[in-house]
Amino acid sequence: MTLNCCVHIPGARNVYNIALISRGITLVLTLSTTGLLLWSKYDSALSTAVRVLLHFLSIPFALIVGQPAAMLISFIIYAVKKDNFSDFKRERIDQLYKSKELHSHDILACQELYGSKFWGSTVYQTLMKGRCVEAGLNYSAFGGGPRWWMLFDSGLSIFSRHEIVRSAALVFRKQSIWDFLFVSRASLYAQVDLGEGRSIHVFTLHTAPSLDDMKKRTALASIFEEKTSTVRQQGNELLDFMVKMLGDKYDQGNDKVIVMGDFNVKAGTMDYHHFANLFKNKYGLVDITKKGPPGSDSDTWDPTFGLVDDKGEPKERLLTSPGLRGHPQTLDFIFTDASKVGESNVLPLKNDDPSQTLWQLVSDHAAVECKIAC
Questions:
Q1: CB–CB of 182/148 below 8 Å?
Q2: Could you give the CA distance from residue 169 to residue 70 in angstroms, rounded to a whole number?
Q3: CATH number at residue 261
Q4: Three-class SS state of 304
Q5: Which of 82, 170, 250, 277 is deepest in the core (most CB within 10 A)?
Q6: Are 34 and 178 within one domain?
Q7: Which residues of the chain form beta strands (DSSP E)?
Q8: What is this structure's pTM?
């Protein structure tokens, strides 16, 4: 059986929207601070303590209101001037459909196939589902909708040639300050029926970037510190979710468990080993995306993000924050208890349309492919 992991169909976050969000927060912060200063100056009834409190409240107010305001503005601009503010999602889905990868795999997991509360925002999920059906991946599961205060849902999806008999989604309780108003960091589960009493239990996920990673994306992150890693807390929630979903449905003799997705942690770091130890200690899962033949103890990986060409130039610019461009790293993994058949492969799916010069790859993340025996 061939699995294809981590084909990002990018969401609303690209270089234009990132800049717009940053400027939106700055604008709202400036306006709110000015307004509160004027209010406190001319309202003689306010005590000094209240004045100080109002000044401090301007910062969280800007963080809370600025991001949704900036995103709303970006949607309006996109509707008017699509070419300059597009992340080319429709074109990327079409390019993925043209690639052999979509037609030669049994299970496909995607992240960042976002929908939102805005009218018509699930059109790309519908388009991707239709393309997968045309490729023979007739069964699908999608992550749950966003919490009432979030703009976007989890963007997670699983497509399969075999029947999905059960599915469930988990939005992590612990969300980073960058995500809790914007997108649902989450996990999606699907039980795939292989027949003859055998199943594959598939978990895909998209966890939060580390604070160190965020500091490379935006200067705003430099004012924050984490006592406990958000992504590790999400890993703990994921393990609880796995225990709940597998329960008595998991026949260790006949079934296989697979966890695959964008972990947003660098290979070999403490955050990576936190996930690896959780999976190995509970279910005996190992990372089969490491380089080398089956059973290898190699601690090297092919990069899946920030890919560069032979000259060291970034292969994808539109989707990647300037601070992350040109720094290859591995963020996408497959953990399983199944036997690996041959080596895993990293597939930087290319854009073969010469008329599209703004984007070079189907996604800023390369797909990760592996073959397993079931």
A1: no
A2: 28
A3: 3.60.10.10
A4: coil
A5: 170
A6: no
A7: 2-5, 107-110, 139-142, 157-160, 164-171, 186-195, 198-206, 256-262, 286-287, 332-336, 339-340, 345-347, 367-373
A8: 0.80
